[in-house]
Each structure stands twice: as C-alpha cells, then as structure tokens.
Amino acid sequence: SGINKGFYFYIQELLRVMRTIDDRIVHELNTTLPTASFVGRGDASTSLVYLFSLMEAHASREKIIKSCIAQTSNVVKTLREEREKAQDDIVLLKHLRQEQTKV
Q1: Per the database entry, which stretches of residues form a coiled coil (predicted)?
Q2: 95 and 1 Cβ atoms separated by less than 8 Å
Q3: What's the structural domain count of the chain?
Q4: By the 8 A CB rule, do 18 and 61 touch?
Q5: What is the pLDDT of residue 29?
Q6: Residues of the chain below pLDDT 50
Q7: In this predicted structure, what is the pLDDT of residue 101?
Q8: pTM given for the model
Q9: How would you write 5-54 as a 3-class SS string?
Q10: Which of 30, 53, 65, 98 has the fewest C-beta atoms lying within 10 Å of its C-beta?
C-alpha cells in the first residue's frame, strides 16, 4: 500500500507539471499564430519549433496518464478478484474503494 501511495503522489506531481505544459501550449497558440496584431512580434519559425516541442510533451503526458489508468485498473481488477474470495474482509473492501476512486 505504501508503494501505491508513493506511486500515486509521483503521478500527481507529474500531472501537475504536465498541466503546466498544457497551459504553455495554449499560451503559445494564442500568441504564436500570426494575426494582424502580432505580425511584428518575433520570428514565427522559432515560435513554431517551441510550440512543436510543447506538443510533443503533451503527447508524452497523454501516454503517462493512460499508463497510470491501465496500472490502476489492473490493481482494481486484482482487488475485485480477491474480494470475491474474501467478502467479509473490510480492509480489502476499503482498499478496493480507494483504488476505484483513482480510476
């Protein structure tokens, strides 16, 4: 259970960092794409390279989130199977409920 909590907090921190990346993507889209008001604002190709790197980071974020969901789903599946064998185990039921809220 301690390992699961550590992993859970690690994933939370990764998601926080990756949300920041999402915010940067939105900001770059809003300020990079040339419009009449931003024509004289720097080199568009440099901005687009930066935007592309942010988009790659976003794709990485999506992959990590899907991996986390898959791992937690496997834990839930295992706990459900254990619960079928030991229906009177309250501690197991609590652990199952905690994991289900993560998914």
Answers
A1: 69-96
A2: yes
A3: 1
A4: yes
A5: 74
A6: none
A7: 79
A8: 0.52
A9: HHHHHHHHHHHHHHHHHHHHHHHHHHHHCCCHHHCCCCCHHHHHHHHHHH
A10: 30
